[in-house]
Design goal:
The complex is a heterodimer of chains A (671) and B (195).
Chain A: E1 9-14, H1 19-27, H2 32-40, E2 41-47, H3 54-63, H4 67-70, E3 76-78, E4 85-87, H5 98-104, E5 109-112, E6 125-128, E7 151-152, H6 157-161, H7 172-178, H8 190-219, E8 224-229, H9 231-239, H10 252-258, H11 261-280, E9 285-289, E10 293-294, E11 311-312, E12 314-320, E13 328-329, E14 333-334, H12 338-345, E15 350-351, E16 371-372, H13 381-391, H14 395-408, H15 416-439, H16 443-456, H17 461-474, H18 477-490, H19 495-507, H20 511-526, H21 529-541, H22 545-558, H23 563-572, H24 579-592, H25 597-609, H26 613-626, H27 631-643, H28 647-662
Parallel strand pairs in A: 1-8, 1-9, 2-13, 2-14, 5-6, 5-8, 15-16
Antiparallel strand pairs in A: 2-12, 3-4, 6-7, 9-12, 10-11
Chain B: E1 6-10, H1 17-27, H2 63-66, E2 70-72, E3 89-95, H3 98-111, H4 119-137, E4 143-149, H5 150-155, H6 157-168, H7 174-179, H8 183-189
Helix pairs in contact in B: 3-4
The chains are: A alpha/beta (671), B alpha/beta (195).
Chain lengths: 671, 195
Amino acid sequence: MAEPIARKLLLVGWDAADWQMIHPLVDAGRMPYLQRLIESGVMGHLLTLQPVLSPILWTSIATGKRAYQHGVHGFAEPTPDGTALRPTSSSTRRCKALWNILAQSGKRCQAIGWYASHPAEDINGVCVSHQFCVAPASATAARWPAQPNSVFPPDLAEPLVGLRLHPTEVTGPMLQQFIPQAPRLDQRDPEVRRLLSSFAKRLAECASLHAVTTALMEEEPWDFCAPYYEAIDHVGHDFMAFHPPRMEHIRPDLYEVFQGVMNATYEFHDQMLGRLMELAGPEAHVMIVSDHGFHSGVTRPRQEVDPAQWHRNFGTFVLAGPGIKKDAMVHGATLLDIAPTVLALFGLPVGRDMEGKVLVNAFESAPEIERIDSWEAVADPVFESRARDQADDDPEAAAAALQQLVELGYIEAPGEDVQRDIATARAEQKFNLACTYIDGKQPARALVLAEELAQQFPDQVRFVILAGQAAVAAGDAAALGRATDALAALEPQHPQVSLFRAFHCWLGDDIAGALQHFEQAAAAGQENSWLLCRIGRAYLRLRRWPEAESAFRKSLALDEDHAESFYGLSVALPRQGKLKEGIENGLQAVALLHDFPLAHFQLGAVLSRLGWYDRALQAFDICLAMRPSFALAHRYVSLISNRLGQTEKADKHRELARRYLAEGVPQPAVD
Amino acid sequence: MTSDFVTVVSGLPRSGTSLMMQMLVAGGLPALTDSQRSADESNPRGYLEYEPVKQLRTDRSWLPQARGHAVKIIHLLLRELPVVAGLDYRVVFMQRPLDEVLASQTAMLRRDGKAAGNPAILRPAFEKQLAQVEAWLATRGDMTVLPVSYHRVVSDPLAVAGEVRTFLGMSLDIDAMARAVDPSLYRERSNEGRF
């Protein structure tokens, strides 16, 4: 076993925490505890996964695996007997979470409030499920017993019950901490009532979670403590629209009163963080993670949209503690890197079935990293008994048993509304799984699922769109044609129709045609950073460098963290003689999105033009680690190696390039 | 006769739950029942059921009425009983060999002109459900459970009645409870226990 770097790790989950909100508050001295962590440790963006839905993402953080590996595909799922819906269960997760791995490795763990954590798991330590702090509608402040199985070990439930705050116990002065002008509000206004009631509920849940966490940290031994705070996301969905600057459609009277809610919520989290840091002690490592960001500026949606569209692709990452660099940046991190990094901190091996990497640049000296094939193969009787229970749930047999009970007259058949809800939940799960496959670069699998959905629900536009998106990712022009036709028949004016037509041209190598459709879509009012980037990419392919540059700059003006647009500039600028500026943009691109082989390739190409061969070789090495069959990258390495007199290496890479081309291995289109 | 708790008679359908309800009523414990399901060939002495129980997943408003009563709730719906501060449940859980239960269910469905499921599929599903319910009951601090063998009820009703009275802590008339058991009904149906 490698030498552990961490003796204790506090991993704090802040759902939807975003640097765009945090930076101004830290600069103004309004988040002093987070500032202390940043200055004594490392920070960086954390790239999210698709789809940007919290139960899926937090399970990926905890397992180091994507949804098609871990099995959590959404917020809700049908019960095994198919009679009702329930929040996605902990038993649905197919693989070990950090608390299972660390617990079986002898660490005492506390997992508190995570998604898909009910029923609470049997671990070496304490597990408090997501349902413990959420008051059901039937509960009152005086009568709110613990949900069965919401705490492990069960005898801890009773002492924790009294620590919770019921929403009706949130008082006016508590609300005024966040909404100082609350007494001015007219509570006969239904919108005001909704907002205040929602805020009280979120505050109660958050305060309850914090009280439970601090009590457990004080009273129970721990090596790994992982509380999950959801309020920044929940409050954001209600109040980010009121954050300055005022959006046109927001009522001025409500803006006046609610404009400070988001900042106050972040400050509240900083105060809670301060207490957690105090309880953890100076020798503990502290890691703060968010699953995604949250649009807070000009990119905020202006109309009613799916809640996930409020989510930005970059969350936050902070790590501080002994052996961690001080006041430094970590680049290119993703959610999938958290689990490997935690394991490395504890000196435990990383599973080869974990796609992410250890964030080695966070460490003062490179940690020793051991590998095993999979933690799933490491015997753990407790977890295996749980897995057996799950395997026994044969849906067909369960449905037959239910039918028998219905026929016998002892139970009601699920009503049509329940059956419809179950069908919808199953479709959502399939939709999310397809999105995960696209994100995980398995578009062919996504396409199969998306086309099934489109066939099953032919009037659902979003399933047809998904099928088209999967077809684009898979490069399947025929499937894209089917989706385009289906969408045009359903909604001829849908903006996605012109985008699909653009991609159809693109797949047929008609770049000018694609550009025309993209520009039409932009002119029709769809202009956003993604579309401007598509226009830029088309100009790159047409070798119209100044127009490409202009499109990428416009894209970045709308989204300063758009990695692909930085990449575009790293191509367009050197073509106009601005080599160093190109390199700067290329570095920005890979800092935001490490898993971007073309950007590393482009960096290598420009660095080699400047004669900076060592750095160029580094860039090509990273590119080839991600895309080993990239023939042109091998040729660059061969040429540079020759110049450096490394003939053996040059020969090897020249041969690899020749072989991949001769074998017809698909090659990326280089801009 | 009053009590602060709800007496729940549970188990698989055709495991003797109606028989236990009849014993409790005979002993003096009122049953929560609406008599919507009348006696028939499968249960000549009646089912003693309460129709709203079937909707326990969506409507629990009747639960306060169940305090101080016996109510029949099949095994699968036990999980739907909410945790309510100040309310406890005492569960008399009927046990009968699964092959007999399945045979009896099949016979009952056939009498009603309905199709029964394949026992080879149902058996493991019911076994699994019972194991899950048993494990789950152990986690509920507000539920105490008395497992009762259907065969013992038939062979030694007086002893079982005494055990039930002790479990419930009530002054039930155990002689009347024992008299409620008519072994001839079981003997008639024992032939159903073969496929």
